[in-house]
Amino acid sequence: MKTREQLVDEIINRGVIVEFLPEKEKFRQRLLSNDPMKIYIGADPTSTSLHLSHAKNYMLLEDIRKLGHEVYVLFGSFTAQIGDPTDKSVARKQLTQTDVMENVQGWVQQIKPLMDFDAKENPPKIVYNHEWLSKMTMEDVVNLASNFTVQQMLERDMFEKRMQEEKPIYLHEFLYPLMQGYDSVALNVEAELCGTDQIFNALVGRTLQGRLNNVEKFVVAVNLMENPNTGELMSKSRGTGIFLNFSAQDMFGAIMSQPDEMIKIFLVNNTRISLDEIDEILKNENPRDAKIKTAVEIVSIFHGKEKANEAKEYFIKTISNKEIPDQVEEFEVSEKEIKLLELLVGSKNATSMSDARRKVEQGGVSVDGEKISEVAMIVDQSFDGKVFKIGKLGFVRVKFAK
Fold it and tell me: For the domain 248-320, what is the CATH code?
């Protein structure tokens, strides 16, 4: 049985947290305290799915909750409609309330495997910032804005860059840090978890919480899980990353397709394997086996051990042994023939005609082991019952109606 101090030090030293404001030891002592601390993390529901870089944040919050602290999962149901300008060279598209709440429904389901919302004692709490931000009057907004200068807002890197490039900065984008900062005041929290790209916004909340509630708020910044060689980040707005709404097979395959340098990143951030054991895995196993172990561990969190092992067997059979899986989705063609690109889109193995074209042109489509290079190819009844392979994991059996 680990002591409370050991549990806290595991949280502090795992490597997920990269910056503590005002200081690391002060936050460590607050975690050690048996007096419950209120802490939250917020995210704007601007897409249909979270990804693994978000998942590690909720896992961290759950670790803190298990110490007895009071944790909040905040969905930016109001701020998502404003649009966070972080890392944006142009203004974000503004969403409707309907768009936002549809995304929220999916996100709640995606994070349920990561946090015990059914805990009998001290369960995590889900909150929505439209509940207080939508009720603010113009007087409230003006009073809030009076705490900061235009010069302070222009210190944000993306605003400075836009000024230099003579690109517009909209007034509603200035309001975003104020609104996000006010979340800390409305919840009256002592700490906020945030990505390193959100430190400016979190510090606005620290300032407001100090002035309006006389509370010194900790800002605890977590890493963004970037590729150590290329600096590439997962991004929900760009649609890049390993998303939490992936099926077990797709999630497993997506992890296996990552470069070897990402293995340790995933093990540290998205599993609870000890750091010593992670070092042993990386030292004693070849990259492929280490990656398989990583994929099984992560997929098990979201889909269970059985589905994870099925995904593993599917991957080994279809990718490593280049076999056709036992069960392949059928796509029925009602006419005598169909264009290849329409087949790929209709069977959901391509998101659009341009995506289908790209897959063919890049040699990602084959039938009976032979690659297809003709984009304008017509699939006729001579292909009845044959299996097309699309990419590494996509398979479809063509079936012509009699």
Answer: 1.10.240.10
